[in-house]
Design a protein that fits this description.
Length: 424
């Protein structure tokens, strides 16, 4: 008799639900903050290069600290580490709240405030280097192994839902209450995340090599990622697609200067990709996409590139929204496949280091992609830069499919079934 898939398996564990609420609040605050910063900075400078610098400021520390952060996460208790990450984010958000106040704008020049914003974004990159590996590792300590794939899907879905509502509220709140009080809301959501995490009990440290030298630990983590072809292939493809597909970093320009839709339209545009991704991920809890995962991933990234080109060429607000929605839905497929591979293939004692490499490949490529988009927009124009990014994404997919027949044939069905049999 065929097994009946339980789409709510992970949700039957109380602490996992609390974790999801904390993650929702944290991602909501972070995504909302990024949008408010983008709007404020572009309004101050009217320069696409300034948007690229926001991504660069977060990218540099996130990449430089990633491997070290993964080592620390594998050595420390995960719940307390997450509390420290949220506290750090809260302090940064409060600093941005103060910087956006009218009193400071009267006392300091716009250039000084801009540099202070970049500095706080840089500190946020350090926090983010620890946040991703900590969350990835904590999931595995909250639910049993047999529901890892389901838990990964719900966690990613929660991330996407927060990414939908955060940018949407940011766009509307900028219009309704202004940048300053929008920052205040962000501080409130970070406090909510902190309260939720405090309700989760401390977890055991499963790493048998506590006290292992840093460089030996990092070497072991990198060796594992590069020798596991399924992980390395998925991370590389996703990284390059996100790097050259960073069109969302230029949305303030499209909203203000091309589509002329203002802050509310900006919020809709910024939320559209996350809406598409959230729908894909919710659907994947009922209709798993493990079979022929390699081909599905390649086609998804190909469609991602087409959507970017359509968005770049569009002068219609609703066509632009649809293109971004499709972009997000296709990116959701990539995320589900990648997270399933990571959860199934990564040993417990290496989760922090593997997640840190993942953040370097994929998470930080969002910021580097924002920098690439800002730089190319400055050099060749906004629309041309977006079309260039989509074209490079298509070329990357074609190159990967041509040189890696093994990746084209990647199928996760057997891996999922073996995992379930080994954890019953």
């Amino acid at each position: 008799m065929a097994k009946t898939l339980d789409p709510y398996a992970a949700l039957r564990f109380r602490e996992f639900n609390i974790f999801l609420l904390a993650r929702f609040a944290m991602v909501f605050a972070w995504s909302m903050q990024f949008i408010v910063i983008e709007w404020q900075v572009y309004s101050m400078t009217k320069d696409p290069w300034s948007l690229g610098l926001i991504g660069l400021m977060e990218f540099m520390p996130a990449v430089c600290m990633a491997l070290f952060a993964g080592h620390i996460v594998d050595q420390k208790e995960k719940r307390d580490l997450l509390i420290k990450c949220i506290l750090g984010f809260s302090v940064i958000s409060f600093g941005l709240f103060l910087l956006s106040g009218p009193s400071l704008s009267e006392e300091f020049s716009a250039t000084t405030i801009l540099y202070a914003i970049y500095f706080l974004v840089f500190l946020g990159g350090i926090v983010r280097a620890f946040l991703g590996p900590t969350i990835f590792s904590l999931i595995a300590l909250i639910v049993p192994k047999k529901v890892y794939p389901n838990a990964a899907t719900w966690s990613s879905t929660t991330w996407q839902m927060a990414s939908v509502l955060g940018p949407a509220l940011a766009g509307f709140s900028i219009s309704w209450i202004g940048v300053h009080w929008s920052m205040c809301l962000i501080v409130g959501f970070s406090v909510m995340a902190l309260i939720c995490v405090l309700s989760i009990s401390k977890k055991p440290i499963l790493n048998p090599k506590i006290g292992e030298p840093v460089f030996q630990s990092l070497k072991e983590g990198l060796k594992f990622v590069f020798s596991t072809k399924a992980i390395f292939g998925a991370l590389t493809l996703d990284m390059i697609a996100v790097l050259f597909g960073g069109a969302v970093a230029l949305l303030p320009i499209f909203a203000q200067d091309i589509l002329h839709v203002g802050s509310q339209g900006f919020g809709v545009l910024r939320a559209a990709p996350a809406v598409g991704a959230a729908i894909t991920m919710i659907g994947s809890t009922r209709f798993p996409i493990h079979k022929n995962a390699g081909k599905k991933l390649l086609w998804a990234v190909f469609g991602f590139g087409i959507s970017i080109i359509v968005f770049g060429l569009s002068t219609s607000f609703w066509l632009s929204v649809f293109a971004l929605f499709a972009l997000g839905a296709l990116d959701g497929i990539s995320m589900v496949i990648r997270q399933t591979i990571l959860q199934l293939k990564t040993p417990d004692h290496m989760r922090g280091r593997v997640a840190s490499v993942n953040s370097m490949f994929v998470g930080s490529s969002n910021e580097l992609g924002a920098f690439e988009s800002g730089a190319t927009a400055k050099l060749m124009g906004t629309v041309t830069a977006v079309i260039f990014g989509g074209t490079m994404t298509l070329l990357t997919v074609g190159f990967t499919a041509f040189i890696s027949p093994t990746f084209r044939k990647l199928d996760l069905t057997k891996a999922v079934e073996e995992h379930e049999e080994n954890t019953i």
